[in-house]
Amino acid sequence: MSNTFSVCCVNADDAQAQVEALAEILIDCVAHGASVSFMHPLAKDKAIAFWRDVVDAVARGERSLLLAQQADGRLLGTVQLILHQPENQPHRADVAKMLVRSDARRRGVGQRLLQAVDAVALQAAKTVLVLDTVTGGAGDHLYTQCGWQRVGDVPNYALMPDGAFCSTTYFYKHL
């Protein structure tokens, strides 16, 4: 597998063309224990429906979708920036669904996606970013390394894909 990849923000048409590959990444991440709103096993039609909703939100300008992709077109990871916020929070965005294919982890994909999401946020005049992740999970270390500040933990906030309870940690970052 190549160690070179690029990260870009895609429009709705380009996102639509990647729905199948995005569904595969989501299914892979859930199968490998990622608590990202879905239970294991995740059916492909359910994953595709999720990504079609994301494409629609991108088309409406409510979200930005970033992809990490090898030169041969293989998707390695993705992250979303939720731009649509209440009117008293025009400067804020949420980072969501940071997903890196299990066989592409520990290659800098997550870090590069986060750097790119910062740039996209600034272009959209978003200066406060917020995200949540499983307490003690792989994201904890990554987000801290990338300059995010831990806010706190909520015990038993969600379920892991196998049904076990997990705590969630909230982070923020000022740009």
Walkthrough of the structure:
The chain is of the alpha+beta class. Helix content is 33%, strand content 34%. A seven-stranded mixed sheet has the order 1-2-3-4-5-7-6, sandwiched between helices. Helix 2 (19-31) packs across helix 3. It is globular, with a radius of gyration of 15 Å.
Shape: globular
Number of helices: 5
Overall structural class, as computed from helix and strand content, comes to alpha+beta
Biggest sheet details? 7 strands, mixed
Distance between the termini: 34 Å
Oligomer: single chain
Helix content: 25-40%
Rg calculated over all Cα atoms: 15 Å
List the uncertain runs.
none
| pLDDT averaged over residues | 97
Number of extended strands = 7
Give the strand order of the largest sheet, numbering strands 1, 2, ... along the chain.
Answer: 1-2-3-4-5-7-6
The SSE string, one letter per element, is EHHHEEEHEHEE
**% residues in beta strands:** 25-35%
Notable traits:
alpha+beta, 175 residues
Topology, element by element:
Layout: E1 5-10, H1 12-17, H2 19-31, H3 44-59, E2 63-70, E3 75-82, E4 92-100, H4 109-123, E5 128-134, H5 138-145, E6 149-159, E7 165-174
Parallel strand pairs: 4-5
Antiparallel strand pairs: 1-2, 2-3, 3-4, 5-7, 6-7
Summary, kept brief:
The chain is of the alpha+beta class. The protein is 33% helix and 34% strand.
